[in-house]
Amino acid sequence: MASKNTPDELLAEGFSKEQFGSAAVADWPGYGQALLDRITETVKERAGATQYASSDPVIAMHVKSAELYLACAQLCRRRVNRIDNSASSGHEDSAVAALLREIRASKAQYEADAEREFAAIPSATAASDSSTSSPGFGAVTSSPFDKSAT
């Protein structure tokens, strides 16, 4: 099943091809799509194939967002690995250390955003929109003085 997102949507999140090396620069659509294809399998496993394929617009929005956030977290991990590998042997300067902290924080935020989307999927439907729902009321009477219950 095709992913819900495109490689260009990853770039729209603020990433650039150059951040991932010559293979990504040479063929961004292939590089980005390969990542999205892997993430798609993870999302289908977590959300369920039925939810992943749902035509309900609210569920589809949560699934698409979860997939995008997981892909972005993976891109952050790849950036950290690339910077770590190219940093001088054990003598990273404070600018590189600050950049790595920033990327790791972004990765953690993307992961948290993905988890929020996954949590919303089971109860999400277009029919559950509060503008179309009506309140339900009920009452329970429990009293030792109520003789009609006996």
How does this structure look, described?
The protein is mainly alpha-helical. The chain has one domain (7-126). 61% of the residues lie in helices and 0% in strands. α3 crosses α5 and α5 packs antiparallel against α6 (94-120). The longest helix is centred in the middle third of the chain and has 30 residues, at 57-86. The chain starts with 6 loop residues before the first helix and ends in a 30-residue tail after the last helix.
Shape: flat
- Can you give the helix content as a percent range? 55-70%
| Number of discrete domains | 1
Mean pLDDT: 85
Class of secondary structure makeup: mainly alpha
**What portion of the residues fall into strands of 2 or more residues?**
under 5%
Stretches where pLDDT is under 50 for at least 5 consecutive residues are 128-134
For the largest beta-sheet, the strand count, sense and barrel status come to: none
Radius of gyration: 23 Å
Q: Helical segment tally? A: 6
Terminal Cα span: 60 Å
β-strand number: 0
Order of helices and strands: HHHHHH
